[in-house]
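Review box. Two proteins, two foldings.
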Amino acid sequence: MPLAVHLLFGAIITALIHPLGLGLFLAFASHYALDALPHWDYSIENIKSKKWNNAFPDFAKIFFDVFPVLAIIFIVSKNPYLLLGAVLAGLPDILMFSNWIFPNKILLFLDEKIHNKTHYPEQKTRLCLRALVTFLIFILAFYVLFTATVNSPLTGSFSTLSKTSLNGPR
């Protein structure tokens, strides 16, 4: 699943699930649940195979996938907790990327094991169906993000939120 979808769902879950600690944990866990669905992924083979001289296009894909979504989440919510939920939802891919660079580190290895067990096998479904599912999830996520941040008790500026406890404003 493209990181943008994971980030959006992480922000949504953080906005809707309380207490805040539970929302953040579920944002992280949502990564594995989303990857279990049929979906499309963009190729980052140069990074996986450590062909660093050819990896710039792969890093550009990741940059243009991640940063616009993080900016939209911040603009819509102005809420650092929703950004944290988004980052936690993307963390499993960051850990997997780290395992490619630093293999055999136990935490990174465990994440890759979980990732491989929960990830939907690409060969099971046609590319057009996987792309359609990814697109529909992405559109749904944007819609829910805009409606969730309007109605969430976590919506507000950082100064307002810093007065709340870790468990949220309840």
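Next protein.
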Amino acid sequence: MKSIDESEYKKAAGLLRYDPKSGLMWREYTSSGWKVSGCVDRQQGYVLIKAGGSKLLKAHRLATYIMEGHVPQVIDHINGIRNDNRWCNLRGCTHAENIRNQKSLKKYKGVYARKDRRAASISYNGISHYLGRFQSDIDAAKAYNEMAIKLHGKFARLNIV
């Protein structure tokens, strides 16, 4: 989606109500009152809203505009669920911080096969850190989690072990 001018968010914010607890946007319809607005984009999983203009807006960006008066370059969904726009789940961040909080397609993030054992590594600021070889996936995942907390802090996406 192309960069959208903040005036589009201002227009839409004037027509919608945002509920920070549920993450839903509400739009007033004259005949039937307020109704939930937006639909989920099947390709990317974000909630999209069209209000007050011809542009589709991502609901998490609109929510941030409504709550803070500006739209940060990158907004992170803390729990990784792109259609969860509750205010407690959104935070402004850098692109690098957003990548650190990304879900893994593998069972354990940072764990891979190395000869007859499992190994773990983690990247930070473009540098890969080898964490060692381990007897099991779980031991390697625990080592990854420890280092993720040290390097990534509140943006660490931890393995469930």
